Amino acid sequence: MATATGLESLVDQMISVITNDGRNIVGVLKGFDQATNIILDESHERVFSTKEGVQQHVLGLYIIRGDNIGVIGELDEELDASLDLSKLRAHPLKPVVH
C-alpha cells in the first residue's frame, strides 16, 4: 500500500486505481488521508471486455475507501491519450481473494 509520503507527489496528477473488487478507476488525485482514503476528481471507470472496446463510465468527483484499494499508480497522460481504447480487448479483472 502506498504511504502518505508516496501519495504526496501524486496530488493533482492523473492516477489509475485498481480496487479489490477488480474495478479500474482513473482520475485526478485531489486528496488522501492516513487510512489511504482517496478523493479523485474528473474520474471515470474503465470497463474491460473481450468482445467490445473499453467502456468509460463517468464518475466525476469520487471517493475510494483505503481498504478497498489494491493498487495506485501514476498515469502517463501522453501515452494514455495515444491509446485507442475502442480497439483494446481484455478480460475484466477478478476480485482480490483474501
What's a quick, concise take on this entry?
With 98 residues, this protein is mainly beta.
Task: Please name the defining characteristics of this protein.
98 residues; mainly beta; 2 helices; globular
- Widest β-sheet, arrangement of strands: 4-3-2-1-5
Overall 3D geometry? globular
Q: Class by helix and strand content? A: mainly beta
**How would a textbook summarize the main sheet?**
5 strands, antiparallel
Q: Which range best describes the helical content: under 10%, 10-25%, 25-40%, 40-55%, 55-70% or over 70%?
A: 10-25%
Distance between the termini: 15 Å
Q: Rg from C-alpha positions?
A: 13 Å
Explained architecture:
Belongs to the snRNP Sm proteins family. This protein has 98 residues and is mainly β. Helices cover 11% and strands 42% of the residues. The protein is built from 2 helices and 5 strands. It has helices at residues 4-8, 77-82, and strands at residues 14-19, 24-32, 38-47, 55-64, 69-74. A hairpin with a 4-residue loop joins strand 1 (14-19) and strand 2 (24-32). It is globular, with a radius of gyration of 13 Å. The two termini are 15 Å apart.
